[in-house]
Amino acid sequence: MKKFSTLLTLMVVALVLVAFAGCDLAMDGAVDRGLDVTSRKAGAGAPVEFTATVNMYQDHESVVDRHVGNSNHYKTEEETLYSSITVDGMGDFGGVIKSDWDLLDGKHVVMNNVTNYNLDPYTTELSGSNHSSIMILDDSGDVVLELDANGVIEGSLFGAEIAMNWVSKNSDVKARGKVAGTFVWLLIDYSNGNVIQTLPNGTFTLTGTYNRSK
């Protein structure tokens, strides 16, 4: 009987040891799998936030407006803005993008707009929707990034706020964000109170995230 009790005790101990060993192996496997998942996530890379600013100027000759009916409703079917432009008799205007994203920093911008808006000729109040195709070009004129933007414009000819959402049209760069800026057509000469027309221009801020898929 004593021998049987001793044998039973040894079997129980052996079973406990096997159970612990199995548990350790299972935990090791779980840890290994967890590390693998973490590594894959880290390798994929999280979206990177960025900002960019640029001054844009309207090319007068590019604007094609259509008056809709007898109201104050208009459609700009074609309009081009540039970050760097030369105007006859007025000189050179603009510069390059300033950004913490190297793909944009130091590049030029060409922005094509299609706008559906209302304009009060007496108060100069302006409001409507705006669609933009924004092309980022390097010094050689090659397009490095193209954005598709949609939003609204609200204000007056003395200063209209533009607010749009945009997404990248490039297949190899995943990016999206917002465009915000103020565009002006008219100024007040505070020395005499007269209204003067200026070269239509605005300062735009581009914010968002990017993540290269390659």
**Which sequence of strands runs across the widest sheet?**
1-3-7-8-9-10-11-12
Biggest sheet: strands, sense, closure?
8 strands, antiparallel, barrel
Helix content: 10-25%
Calculate Rg over CA atoms: 31 Å
Q: Give me the strand/helix succession.
A: HEEEEEEEEEEEE
How many beta-strand segments? 12
Query: What structural class is derived from the secondary structure elements?
Result: alpha+beta
Instruction: Report the total helices.
Output: 1
Spatial shape: globular
Q: How would you state the average pLDDT, rounded?
A: 83
List segments where confidence is low: pLDDT < 50 over at least 5 consecutive residues.
Answer: 2-43
Total discrete domains: 2
Report the span from N to C terminus: 73 Å
Beta-strand share of residues: over 45%
Concise structural overview:
The protein has one helix at residues 2-44, and strands at 48-58, 64-67, 73-82, 84-87, 91-94, 98-99, 108-119, 125-137, 143-156, 159-168, 173-189, 194-212. It is an alpha+beta fold and 214 residues long.
Describe this structure in words.
With 214 residues, the protein is an alpha+beta fold. The protein is 20% helix and 56% strand. It contains one helix and twelve strands. The longest helix has 43 residues, at 2-44.
Write the layout of secondary structure elements.
Blueprint: H1 2-44, E1 48-58, E2 64-67, E3 73-82, E4 84-87, E5 91-94, E6 98-99, E7 108-119, E8 125-137, E9 143-156, E10 159-168, E11 173-189, E12 194-212
Antiparallel strand pairs: 1-3, 1-6, 1-12, 2-3, 3-7, 4-5, 7-8, 8-9, 9-10, 10-11, 11-12
